[in-house]
Write a structure and sequence with these properties.
- The model has no long low-confidence stretch (mean pLDDT about 90).
- The radius of gyration is 18 Å and the shape is globular.
- α3 (about 40-50) runs parallel beside α6 (about 110-120).
- It is an alpha/beta fold and about 270 residues long.
- The chain has an 8-stranded mixed sheet with strand order 1-10-11-6-5-2-3-4, sandwiched between helices. Strands 7-8-9 form a 3-stranded antiparallel sheet, covered by helices on one side.
- About 35% of the residues are buried.
- Helices cover about 30% and strands about 30% of the residues.
- It has helices at about 15-25, 30-40, 40-50, 60-65, 90-95, 110-120, 165-175, 190-195, 220-230, and strands at about 5, 80-85, 100-105, 125-130, 150-155, 175-185, 200-205, 205-210, 215, 235-245, 250-265.
- The structure holds S-adenosylmethionine.
- S-adenosylmethionine binds near residues 90 and 156.
- The site of S-adenosylmethionine has 22 residues, from β3.
Length: about 270
Amino acid sequence: MEDDFSEHSKTLSPADKEKLEIQNSRLISEHKAKMLELEARKHWDLFYKRNENRFFKDRHWTTREFQDLINDAGTSKRILFEIGCGVGNFIFPLLEEKLNFDVIACDFSSKAVEILKNDPKYDPNSIKAFQCDITTPDVFSIIPINNVDIATLIFVLSAIHPNNFHQTLRNIYDLLKPGGVLLFRDYGLYDMAQLRFKAGHKISDNFYMRQDGTRSYYFSVDYIGSLLKKSGFEVISNCYIHRRTVNRKDNIDVPRIFVQCKAVKPFG
Ligand SMILES: C[S@@+](CC[C@H](N)C(=O)[O-])C[C@H]1O[C@@H](n2cnc3c(N)ncnc32)[C@H](O)[C@@H]1O
């Protein structure tokens, strides 16, 4: 299914506007929001205990969307750091393409990392995976600064509290070599999953709790663009992606909205 790139998210219909109004009628209490933050790791661990590697589809679109993954200028191996790797739906298809990478991968959830490492496709010669909260400085005890050629953040920043967006991007910036690239894809503003939340699920602007306690933010291109710039990046591309998820067997045909960016750590 082809992606449609755009500068615009979605024009809200009166029914969409009403859905967003209803969400505002009952927000999550401050206490509950604090608990969700404190227990964020536990909720992701439970998610992976329940779903193991059956939930996310393998991401076979990544080399099509992100040419930087293929454009290998030199002969030496590049270091790719996949943040929030989950159970490998991004990494394993990428490694199948036999690109010249050493892959480092981290996830908040130790259960996800355990499932990833137990996968027969996990080859410790080409992947090094570890548990880590990317919002903290812990990552620097594993990866030195100015070390990474390509960092990937695929449907991960949305799972992090907005108060930690800047620190997360700053940590990634510090890990990248000058000239290193961040590839980003995540949920876009007014995606159908955002409009579907009922009252009692909204935490703050564009930030929601799912039924299972995991959380999700929906990004506008303006907001992610300004976050990247504030963290020191030069934004090379930044747009909405409109895509239909079609499953004829289950009679599903839904429009999705994602945001996709490429940002570079400038030299000097
Ligand atoms: C929606 S999943 C996406 C997984 C994977 N990137 C993919 O595309 O299939 C979000 C992932 O972000 C991870 N995550 C959430 N908060 C994180 C944090 N603070 N540091 C590192 N990973 C985090 C979760 O554990 C989860 O595996």
